[in-house]
Structure formats: C-alpha cells, structure tokens
Amino acid sequence: MAALRVAPYVCAYSDENEENLHIEIELPGVEKKDITFKMQETSFSIDASRGDVRYVGTYAVGCPVDTDRAKATFRNGLLTVDVPYIQPVAEETKEIPIAE
C-alpha cells in the first residue's frame, strides 16, 4: 500500500521586531533523519515520512528571506525554522500593451 500523503500543519509569522520569519511545522512521529526541508528566497518545501504517512507541502513566503542565515531545529515532532528577511531588490516594472 502506498503512503498516505498529507499536508502538515504549518504556522508562519514575523517575530516581534519584524526582522525574522518564524516557521513551525508539526511532524508527529517523524524522526529527524526522515525530514527534508528546502528553502528559497520566496518559498519553502517540506518532505517528511513516518511509516505509512508522508508529509509534503510547498509554501510561498510573502517577503524574501536570507536562506544562508536560516536556522532549523527539530524537537518532539516540531520543526522550527527562523530566517531573517532581506530587502527585496527593486525591479523595473514594465507595462505590457494588450492587443485587441
């Protein structure tokens, strides 16, 4: 039988100084060795398994973060990640004409 794929419970919010993104992911019964957590400037993904359950999900981050300075811990089924925000690079906006 294939593993049951479920989205884990995820809670993400800014710290009190709005300098860091704090992420909590509940992974009950999972061992640290069975977790893969990946992060980009604007998103993160989780893939973790325990027996016949596989926790998977990809989530967008509202403001860019500095992935090189991310810190993650895992205790008692709770993956906690803290990562500082970075200033977004100003991109030139270009209006695109719409044809008839």
What's the average pLDDT?
92
Radius of gyration: 17 Å
Strand percentage lies at over 45%
Largest sheet: 4 strands, mixed
Read across the widest sheet, the strand sequence of neighbours is 1-6-5-4
Span between termini: 53 Å
Question: Please, how many helices?
Answer: 0
How is this structure best described in words?
The chain is mainly beta and 100 residues long. It has strands at residues 4-6, 9-14, 20-26, 35-40, 43-50, 53-60, 71-75, 78-84. The chain has a four-stranded mixed beta sheet, with no helix packed on it. Strands 2-3-8-7 form a four-stranded antiparallel beta sheet, with no helix packed on it. It is flat, with a radius of gyration of 17 Å. The N and C termini lie far apart (53 Å).
Short summary:
This protein has strands at residues 4-6, 9-14, 20-26, 35-40, 43-50, 53-60, 71-75, 78-84. It is an all-beta fold and 100 residues long.
Blueprint of the fold:
Blueprint: E1 4-6, E2 9-14, E3 20-26, E4 35-40, E5 43-50, E6 53-60, E7 71-75, E8 78-84
Parallel strand pairs: 1-6
Antiparallel strand pairs: 2-3, 3-8, 4-5, 5-6, 7-8
Keywords:
8 strands, single chain, mainly beta, flat, four-stranded antiparallel sheet, 100 residues, 50% strand, four-stranded mixed sheet
